[in-house]
Every structure is written in structure tokens, then in C-alpha cells.
Amino acid sequence: SVGECVFPQVGVTAQKTMRLLPASGRAATQKVVVGDQDGVVTCFGIKKGEAVPVFKTLPGKKIARLELGGALNTPQEKIFVATGSEVRGFTKRGKQFLSFETNLTESIKAMHISGADLFLCASYIYNHYCDCKDQHYYLSGDKINDVLCLPVDKVNCITPVLACQDRVLRVLQGSDLLYEVEVPGPPTVLALHNGNGGDSGEEIVYGTSDGKLGLIQITGSKPMPKWEIGNEKKRGGILCIDSFDILGDGVKELLVGRDDGVLEIYNFESADDPVLRYDHALSESIASIQGGCVGKDGYNEILASTYSGWLTGLTTEPVHREDGSGAELKLSQEMQSKISSLRNELEHLQMKVLQEREKYQQSSQSSTAVSSVPAFSVNDKFTLNKDDASYSLILEVQTAIDNVLVQSDVPIDLLDVDKNSAVVSFSSCDSEPNSNFLLATYRCQANTTRLELKIRSIEGQYGTLQAYVTPRIQPKTCQVHQYQIKPLSLHQRTHSIDHDRPMNTLMLKGQFSFAEIHSWVVFCLPEVPEKTPAGETITFYFQNTFLGTQLESTYRKGEGCFKSDNISTISILKDVLSKEATKRKINLNISYDINEESVRHTLKLIHPKLEYQQLLAKKVHLIDALRELQVHEGNVDFLLPKYRSILEEADQLLEEYKRQPAHLERLYGMITDLFIDKFKFKGTNVKTKVPLLLEILDGCDQDGLIAFFEAA
């Protein structure tokens, strides 16, 4: 059985900022050390169910990472924190012994410590120090999310591994790239398998921002993937990983914390692939996870720290004792006294809040009043989901959310989210003078600190989505967060494309620099690093998550080449790039090569989706009539099997239809754009023929549709 217990709350915490110190001396329990965004390092132990402080540092800059270190093959009980561009070291008693100001111009984002070796990463920069002396440096092609080094005592050499946003693990040797490992999503966290890299010391577990998990063996010459777990349950991205034998079977389990608050335990039943044994949902994203013995000797726990600084423990200690009624009574008395003291503390806090509120009201009405706006922290994530070609906007606030107003200056669809309990209301908006296409308010239930929204954009329509976040704090205050919806917003970076498809080509030539054309590509497409790539030329591959079409972009100073099997993608790029160049008064020489076969190919990709959505819409429209028949006739045995199956699946059909509003409209829009774009490149305006095209679409005949495109 697993019971839940809550420890003290600290400030807002970043990813990987909580660790358990190794047990020392006679004490069998471990101390907890956590760093927060107020810059405070807190260390405490648990005695008789109560937190006992060991030390607490003074506030400072935000703590981005907290790691344990020490001499190799000794207990790792020295505490290191990364704050700004500085690394500080503390003993387990809280005495500061190190203050190392690095030469990094940006704040440290990731850190790993191995003996005297310190590995640090800012956004794109990796630095290796030994005894605080600069050793190696590497500039990554995309943002670095985490860093790790294989255990030196096992592999006998220093092998750092960088987890980079472009879905790649980069394995280094000194200051050089040894090789790259492609992974199925942007890796957010790395951990040594079993805490030590497995038997070989070369095994690394990674977690991705789209919720996938995998194990790769990093050998001296090439990567060897061992296993990979998808995200069939559509859970959140992975923020933290640990290995610990919580089940007591002699094999370490894999502990995983996700950004939707789900904590998972995987164990290795078959000794090869992990199997999900247990999961538990918390209300906030899990920033750090650790396994150990904290609360009571002999009972292991999983400790998780969440975004707003709550520390939660899942313990193996039995919640109910079963050794007679006396022990049961003793436990309840112990609990009652604890509950009573908590009640008193709560009443005291409530009184204090009322007094302070009254004091504030009085001072705010005086002639010399200066109202202070309370600061609050918002953790946000705006990502494209490959599975359903929608964007997830996740907003997490350190205090309860009152409401969120969402405004967009481009047409977008709001999709249903199962986990969302907020009440949404739409306001009518005037799209003409203000370019206002969406105004929606989400009113949250009490104690909601995390809100997830889903939207689908239309390619070619680009602008800004704004979220106005108002928490339940006094005086009322609001933060605005902006998210760019790009011209090719449904495209996602991929490692490779199918070069055998019929491709259309767009060529640009002009007096522009490498940095200028790169900034235009960043403006047009998601998942492109903002920093201009090293070297003289670069190639990026993309896939359209809605249709499955592809794009290859290769460019250098004065020249750009874009290839896609979808004419509409080329058309959008042509319009946007021309506009961006005109803004900068740069003359572009634009040429294109259109492949007629690509139109037929794209229609064949769209048609199965079109057919499915049309059938779904027809079935949904029949449900009410069929249900009425069922009520009148008493049974439905006389109906044809296909109608009986519609009634049986009615709830699932309605659910699917509700989840994908305007899906059919979007497909009609894409086919219409494809038709107009095909002839636009020939210099023909075919907008008058669009009503005829829509009639053919209603008939849903693939051959007829292709024939219409070719005959027009």
C-alpha cells in the first residue's frame, strides 16, 4: 500500500532542484535539500512526522539546478546550486565552501557534477571545468535542456551528453562532437540508468517534452537504442527521472515525474522493457523526483517537489496498522493531536490574513497611499502536438487562478480538453477594425493552479495569441503572455524526409545575409533555433502534422531553396518571405518550379481524412433521429446493422465530433487553397470556380476531385 504525506512548502521551484542527501552516521533516514526561485536553499529532516530544519540560506538569484557531489567513490553529500552564472557549494550542515563565478554571459540552465569535474550549460553553450578551471567548450546547434556525463570510474573517460531541443542527444569528446543520437521528441531530461549507467556505465534514460521515455547505450563509437515507450495515454511532458528500488524486490524501479502532475513507477519485469506498475496524480507539474527513506526508518518513500514548492511523499508505510485495536487507537490519537495543532495554526493564519487585509485597505485609502502590485510567477508552455495537429497552451501559476482571458488576432479553433474543469465563455468580437478573431474567458474553480487549453491554427494566417492571467490574490493584478502563431504553424521539425515524393521548388536570390534569411525562416516556421547556425549553410526538414506533407529548407547568404510536396506551403512561403524582404528594402529574385504531379499526390494524402470526417459528420447528424426511433419503437432490431452500430457508438461519435470542431471545414479550406494556389502559379484566378469545387467535395469522390483539378 502507498500512503501520501505532505512536507513543508518552499518557494517556486525549477526542474531538478530537490535531492535527498545520503544517510549518515546512525541515522537511517535521509535529509531533504531543495533550492527555490527565491534563491533559498532549504535542508530539513523528518522526526515523528514533523519537519526538523537543518539549515536555510538567505534569498538570492533564482536557483536553476541543484546537484550533489563529492570525491568519486565517496558519499555524494556536498550540495551545489546553479544561480545566475554562478555555482555555489554548501556542506551538508549549510556552510558555504564554494562561490565560483563562471565566464558565462547567460544564466546557467543545466548542470552536472562528477568528482572535480563540473559541466554547465547556458542556452546554446556547454562548458566543462575541472577544479573550477576551464577545460572544454562547445556551441550547440539548438537549445540545451540538460547535460550528463557517463560515470568516469566505469567508462574511464569523460563522455558528456547534451539533451538538445532539436530532438537530438549530442555526445561530446573534449570540445568536439563525437556523434548525434536522434530521439523521438525534444529531450527535456537525462538520467543515468539505475543511477549508475547500468552494468556498462553507458546507459542513459531520456524523457521528452511530448511525454516519451527511452533508454540508449552511448558506446565510444555509436549509439545503441535499447527501448522506447510512447505516450499513448497523452500524458504531460517528462521533467524528472530517478532510479530507486521502491518495491523492495532488489531491482531498481524507474520513477518519472511529468508536467501534468502525473507520477509514474515503472519496473523491469521482463528485465528488458519497463512496465508501468503504479501512477499517482498531483495537481501541479512535478519538477523533481527522488526515492529514499525520509519519514521513518524501514519505510521507503518517493519524494516529489512541484512547481509551486510543495513537497509530497508517497510512502510504503502502512496507513492503517493491523496488529490489534490498541495500535489502531494509538495511531488515531497521534493523528488527532496533529490535526488539532494544524487547525489551531490555520485559525491563527486566517486571523493574521484578515488583520493584514484590513491594514492594507486602510493604508490604501490614505492620501499618501502607494499601491503595490503583487508579483506572481507563471510557468507557461506553448507546444505543437504531432498526434492531432493542435497547440497546447499550459499555464501554471504559483497561486490559485481566478480567470484567464484568451485573445487572438488570427482565426483559431479552441478544442476541448478533458482535464480542463474551467467554465469557458465566448465574447463576440469585431474582426474588422481591431483584427480581433477570438475572445474567450476561462473561469477556474477554487484551488486551480494549472490550466490547459488546446487550439488549432490555420496555415497562412499568422499573428499573436495573448493570455491574460488573473490569479486569486489581492489587490487584483494580471499578467499578459504572448505566443506567436507562425505562417506555417502546423509544421514540426523532423530528422529526415522522403526524397522520392514529387516536390515543388521555391528559389530566392538577393542581397541578404545568412542572419537575415535565418530570421525570416524563424518568423515563418516553429521549432527553428533563434540563434543563426554556425557554418555557411543549413538545411532543416519539416513535416505538416495535419496533412503529413513535408518541407525541406536549405539556405545560405544570398540564396534560399525551399522544396515541398504541397503547393500551398510554397505559396505561403513565397508571400511571407516577399513581405519580410520588402520590409527591409531588399530586392528578391524569386523563381519557382511547380510539379503538377504533387497536386494529385497531396489530394491523395488529404482524401482519406476528408472521407473519414464526412462519414463522422453524417453519423452524428443521424444520431438524434435514430434515438427518436428507438424511443418510439421500443427496440431497434428492425434497423440495418450499420444504423444499429451508430446507436451503439453514439457517445464515442459525439465525443470525437465535439473534440474536433471545424475539422471538416479546415479540410475543405485546405483543398480550396490548394486549388487556388495551383492556378495562382500559372497566373490564373480561379476563385469563381470555388463553389463548383465545394459541390464536388460534398460528393467525396477522389477520382472526380482529381479530374476537376486537372480540367479546370
UniProtKB/TrEMBL annotation:
<dbReference type="GO" id="GO:0036064">
    <property type="term" value="C:ciliary basal body"/>
</dbReference>
<feature type="domain" description="BBS7 helical hairpin">
    <location>
        <begin position="596"/>
        <end position="709"/>
    </location>
</feature>
<keyword id="KW-0175">Coiled coil</keyword>
<dbReference type="GO" id="GO:0016020">
    <property type="term" value="C:membrane"/>
</dbReference>
<dbReference type="GO" id="GO:0034464">
    <property type="term" value="C:BBSome"/>
</dbReference>
<protein>
    <submittedName>
        <fullName>BBS7 protein</fullName>
    </submittedName>
</protein>
<feature type="domain" description="BBS7 platform">
    <location>
        <begin position="491"/>
        <end position="593"/>
    </location>
</feature>
<feature type="coiled-coil region">
    <location>
        <begin position="332"/>
        <end position="359"/>
    </location>
</feature>
<dbReference type="InterPro" id="IPR056335">
    <property type="entry name" value="BBS7_hairpin"/>
</dbReference>
<dbReference type="Pfam" id="PF23361">
    <property type="entry name" value="BBS7_pf"/>
</dbReference>
<dbReference type="GO" id="GO:0043005">
    <property type="term" value="C:neuron projection"/>
</dbReference>
<dbReference type="InterPro" id="IPR036322">
    <property type="entry name" value="WD40_repeat_dom_sf"/>
</dbReference>
<feature type="domain" description="BBS7 GAE">
    <location>
        <begin position="374"/>
        <end position="483"/>
    </location>
</feature>
<dbReference type="InterPro" id="IPR056334">
    <property type="entry name" value="BBS7_GAE_dom"/>
</dbReference>
<dbReference type="Pfam" id="PF23349">
    <property type="entry name" value="BBS7_hp"/>
</dbReference>
<dbReference type="Pfam" id="PF23360">
    <property type="entry name" value="BBS7_GAE"/>
</dbReference>
<dbReference type="GO" id="GO:0005930">
    <property type="term" value="C:axoneme"/>
</dbReference>
<dbReference type="GO" id="GO:0008104">
    <property type="term" value="P:intracellular protein localization"/>
</dbReference>
<dbReference type="InterPro" id="IPR016575">
    <property type="entry name" value="Bardet-Biedl_syndrome_7_prot"/>
</dbReference>
<dbReference type="Pfam" id="PF23743">
    <property type="entry name" value="Beta-prop_BBS7"/>
</dbReference>
<dbReference type="InterPro" id="IPR056332">
    <property type="entry name" value="Beta-prop_BBS7"/>
</dbReference>
<feature type="domain" description="BBS7 beta-propeller">
    <location>
        <begin position="18"/>
        <end position="316"/>
    </location>
</feature>
<dbReference type="GO" id="GO:1905515">
    <property type="term" value="P:non-motile cilium assembly"/>
</dbReference>
<dbReference type="InterPro" id="IPR056333">
    <property type="entry name" value="BBS7_pf_dom"/>
</dbReference>
